[in-house]
Amino acid sequence: MSTPDVAPSPDGPRVVSASRDVAADAATLFELIADPAQQPRWDGNDNLAQAAPGQRVTAVGQVFRTTLTKGSVRENHVVEFSEGRRIAWNPSEPGAEPPGHLWRWELEPLGPSLTRVTHSYDWSQLTDPQRLPRARATGREQLLASIDRLAALAQRT
User: Gene3D superfamilies annotated for this entry (predicted)?
Assistant: First the structure.
């Protein structure tokens, strides 16, 4: 099952979301999401190169670092967290305030080995004109690609 959720703006959709039911338990899926070292394995934007091990997210307020494929580093500020259910972060350049976009994952267990996974990208607060083209290019297809890759990894474990 896949469903889009898009909020319109004069600039086009600024919140994009995709959902899919995945044949894996929520705990396994969440572990792959909440461990930044695993994120490059399922990133549907092909934007993440690596993240150091030992950064497993456990609470709001934490910051984890990732390295992008172009070599720059991002600090990801965790703003939502519920173990096994929900995680969201605002990326920023090191030492800078987040520019106004958010990545969110929500997991809804539907059974012991079935989970509805919803992945959202919200750039409704983004004002940096240099970041707008990339934000506009991130759509439902990239979000679904991340869910599909995440599902494949979880189903192998």
Answer: 3.30.530.20
Determine the Cα angle at 50 with ends 46 and 51, to 5°.
130
The domain ranges of the chain are 15-156
Task: Name the token pair of 24.
Answer: 């894996």
Report residue 84 as tokens.
């096994």
CB distance 73 to 89 below 8 Å = no
Domain 15-156 has CATH 1.20.120.1200: no
Number of H helices, E strands in the chain: 4, 7
- Chain center to CA of 47: 12
- Taking the model in full, what pTM does it have? 0.90
Residue that is written with structure tokens 């990239």 in the block = 142
Residues facing residue 70 across a β-bridge? none
